[in-house]
Structures are given as C-alpha cells and as structure tokens.
Amino acid sequence: MRNLLLVMMLHAVLSLAQGVAQTASADPVFEGEAQRVVTGLKFTEGPLWMPAGFLLFSDIPANHIYRLGADGQAAVWREDSGSSNGLTLDRNGCLLACEHGHRRVSVTGVDGTIAALAERWEGRLFNSPNDAALRLADGSVYFSDPPYGLGNRTPEIGFQGVFRVFVDGRVECLVRDFRKPNGMAFSPDQGQLYVADTEAGHVRAFTVGADGALAEGRVLAEVKTPDGMKVDTAGRLFVTSTDGVVVLEPDGTRRTVLALPETPANCAFGDADGRTLYVTARTSLYRVRVVTPGILPGRSAAGR
After folding, report:
1. What is the distance between the terminal CA atoms of the chain, rounded to a whole angstrom?
2. What gap in Å lies between CA 1 and CA 68, rounded to an integer?
3. How far is 230 from 267, CA to CA, in rounded Å?
4. Closest by Cα among 105, 143, 137, 125 to 228
C-alpha cells in the first residue's frame, strides 16, 4: 500500500512538472540563446534599427556611431557623435541622438546636417541627455537627463528629470523627482510611458494624457539597476539590467531573464520582421531571435 501511494505521489509530481513545462514553453519569449555579433569596442549603447534595413549603435567613450553591416562587421558611421548614447527617429525618419558630450538632443536632417533639437531648459544647459522616445500623435520627443555624461562639468539644472520637446522647439519639464532617470519607452498604444530609474532600482509607469502630459507615476516593477528598454507588440518590456535582459509583462510581472556574458546597457528590435532583439552590452553587440515582434522606431504596434 505504501509503495502504491509513493508511486501515485511521484506520478502526480511528474504530471505537475510536465504541465508547468508545457505551460512555460507554450508561449516562449526567446528563440535560443543570444549570439555575440561584434566585440572589442569600449561601451556600446543606443541600438537603433533604421528603416533602410541596418542597425546603428553608439560607442560612448569612442565618440562614434557604428553601423552593423550585412556581413556582421561594424564600421564607423559617424566619427564625431557628441559621445551619443540613446538613438531614435523623429516622425520624419530623421535620426535623434542624445549627446553626452554636447549636453543636447540632436537631429540629423535629410541633407545630413546635424543641429540641436534641444539643448537648454529655461536658459540652462541639460545635464547629459540619455535616452529618448517619440510620441507619434504629435511628434514630440521625450527624453531623460541624468548626469552620467557630465564628467567634471558643472550641472546647470539641479535635478535629474524627464523632458519633452514639442515640434515647435518648446521644452517642458515633465518629471523632476528621479534619482537617475535612464531608458524609456512607450506602451504599444502610447498610453503609458515607462522610465527606468537606475539608482532607485525600478521602472516607473506614467499614464499619458490626450495632450501628452504625464499623470503621477507609479512603480511598475523592481529591477536591479535598470538601464535601456524597449517594448514588443504584446506590451512586454525588455529591460536591460545587471541581471541581464529582464522581460516584464505589461502589469510588471517578471516573465523571464536573458542572461548575457556582459552586462547589457540597452536593446532594440530590428530586422524586417521586428523579431530580432539587438543588445548592446559593454564591449559587444549581441542579438537573439524573439517570438513576438517588437515595435520598430517611428511605428505603432499595428504598423510595426
């Protein structure tokens, strides 16, 4: 009788384990492990998939923007990047760069001319713009402004905040109570803005009003030293951290973590189908295929 009970208990445990495994594999996030594409750089950041079909990314200390070629080789795309960090596109498809060196957000025109999109708030220079996200409804640009790129320079703004640049050039401070604001991304419907606070160790979510204003934020999830982030079409957040790439459900529940040999700083979806996640991690660039497409720059979830 005792042996029969043990067999029944073992069968129940095995059935439960099999059920959990089936549930976990029924909706996977990553297809296999991440592969190192490029290495030997200084500190990679700001990956961005371009509509023309290639990836750009920053190397902050090298003061370069690199282009990843179809042959898997990285070549310098811009020599003097202003020590750019985060990169994104405006609604015209022009490159926006958060430049630590010049303490500004720049825009590259269709003719290749580089100009300041925003470099001051109330007459004061920014700290060192870090990451940016585009609001499709009106073309305004939201960006974070921590002091990471200041070096020995004196800050002119006495806080680390999140700002918004309107298409007419006006700059508005939206939030000023961050400890170290960093990566940011909109939800698929752009009704939420997610902002990482690296020093506070969490990701905050702000409801975006019809006019683009932010309601009081809430802590969506605790993440160890969160950095850059992106969102897929299902609304999941892919947050880089010292743990790896942490995947959060829209409600903040931790789904899984992609471990990497180096600490990742930022990520971006790319390739024609939006199903490759590119990850900048210290001296290298990695990529991994994902099941659910990500939102590509300048597009909504519907338009990818």
Report:
1. 60
2. 66
3. 7
4. 143
Structure tokens at 201: 């160790």
Question: How much is the pTM?
Answer: 0.90
Please answer whether residues 275 and 213 qualify as being in contact, where contact means their C-beta atoms are separated by less than 8 angstroms: no
In whole angstroms, what is the distance from residue 64 CA to residue 77 CA? 7
Distances (CA, A) of 51 to 17, 88, 249: 44, 11, 27
Question: Residue 35: CB partners within 8 Å, gap ≥ 6?
Answer: 286, 287, 288
Q: Structural domains in the chain?
A: 30-290 (2.120.10.30)
61/44 Cα distance (integer angstroms): 9
Q: Which two tokens stand for residue 182?
A: 């960093």
Coil, helix or strand for 9? helix
Q: Distance (Å, rounded) from C-alpha 260 to C-alpha 242?
A: 10
d(CA 44, CA 255): 26
pLDDT in tens, the chain (304 residues): 444 444 344 444 344 344 333 333 446 999 999 999 999 999 999 999 999 999 999 999 999 999 999 889 999 999 999 999 999 999 999 999 999 999 999 999 989 999 999 999 999 999 999 999 999 999 999 999 999 999 999 999 999 999 999 999 999 999 999 999 999 999 999 999 999 999 999 999 999 999 999 998 999 999 999 999 999 999 999 999 999 999 999 999 999 999 999 999 999 999 999 999 999 999 999 999 999 999 998 765 555 4
